[in-house]
Amino acid sequence: MIKPNPAVTDLPLLSYEINAALPEVPENSVIYKCNRTSVHLSVKMDLWETGLRLDPEFLYLGSCPSSHVNEALAFFHFQYSFKECRFARLVRDVKIFPLKPGVGIWRKLVLKSKDCRTQRLTPARVTGSGLLSASSGLMFRGTFMNEDFSGPSDLSAFLLGSQIPIEFAVQQFFHQPLRLFVDECIAADAAELGSSFRNYTVIANHGCLLDSKFANSRFLPRHAPDVLRLSLQAFEFAGINTDLYFYLYL
User: Fold this and answer.
1) b vs e for 201-218, b when ≥16 Cβ sit within 10 Å of the residue's Cβ?
2) 95 versus 147: which is more confidently predicted?
3) Is the pLDDT reported for residue 39 higher than 60?
4) What is the CATH number of domain 137-249?
5) What is the homologous superfamily of the domain 30-112 according to CATH?
6) CB 105 within 8 Å of CB 55
7) CA nearest neighbour of 146 among 160, 169, 166
8) What does residue 93 show for φ and ψ, rounded to 5 degrees?
9) What's the sign of the alpha-carbon dihedral 15, 17, 23, 25?
10) ZP domain: from which residue to which, for each copy (predicted)?
């Protein structure tokens, strides 16, 4: 049935709508073949066998036009690999949009769904071995931190008995992942350990926090293998008013 479109009644006859069901596509009008890498689809020029040929200018498989035309057998051919045309191995609802010659009206044709399946590929295990090596240095650091360890502290003096947040870390560069330990830590009253008059062992025996026996000092839970945090209670050497220096073995 043909009826006028009320929204465009002032336009010519070509703007009328076609509200009619398209005829069924004969089985022999669409032929397809698939293998593991490509698909070959053949579409009959006279798709409905009504004497009206499809216009190849508006005929696409995905984003690809027909690859070649067989005038003798009157078929359009689409032969492409699965990497082309932006389609996957499972193809459904192939859409063809022909333009009827001589009439400026689009008609939409939807072919029957066709499943293009291939055999499932079986993955193969390939064994091998290799050697990966790199050479670089390691950079260790010990830093006085803010109370919440959000960043380095600007303080250089601490009240006696207060907690000093200290973070030890190693910059690994190209090295394999490391787990950091503090084997030894000694506090002294001089910049050179050998010239100090007083010293105090904070950590010894491969990481034993000796100061925790006498003060409120403790290691904090790790948040990364290459970082170690310590909460050290501030102390002083009796009778000596000088800076303290820490010597570490990381």
Assistant:
1) ebbeeeeebebbeebebe
2) 147
3) yes
4) 2.60.40.4100
5) Zona pellucida, ZP-N domain (2.60.40.3210)
6) no
7) 166
8) 50, 60
9) positive
10) 33-250
Distance CA 11, CA 213 (A): 97
Q: What is the pTM of this model?
A: 0.45
Q: Which amino acid is at 247?
A: Y
Assess whether the region 30-112 and the region 137-249 belong to the same CATH fold. Answer: yes
- Compute how many other C-beta atoms are within 10 angstroms of the C-beta atom of residue 76: 22
The residue ranges of every structural domain in the chain are 30-112, 137-249
End-to-end CA distance of the chain: 89
Question: Phi first, then psi: what are they for 13, rounded to 5°?
Answer: -60, -25
Instruction: Tell me the three state secondary structure of residue 53.
Output: coil
Q: Is 219 helix (H, G, I), strand (E, B) or coil?
A: strand
CA distance 102 to 121: 49
Taking the C-alpha atoms of residue 183 and residue 206, their distance in angstroms, rounded to an integer, is: 4
Q: How confident is the model at residue 95 (pLDDT cuts 50, 70, 90)?
A: low
DSSP 62: T
pLDDT for 63: 84
111 burial level (CB within 10 Å; 0-12, 13-18, 19+): middle
Return the amino acid letter for 93.
D
Question: Are 31 and 42 spatial neighbours (Cβ–Cβ below 8 Å)?
Answer: yes
Q: For residue 203, is pLDDT > 90? A: yes
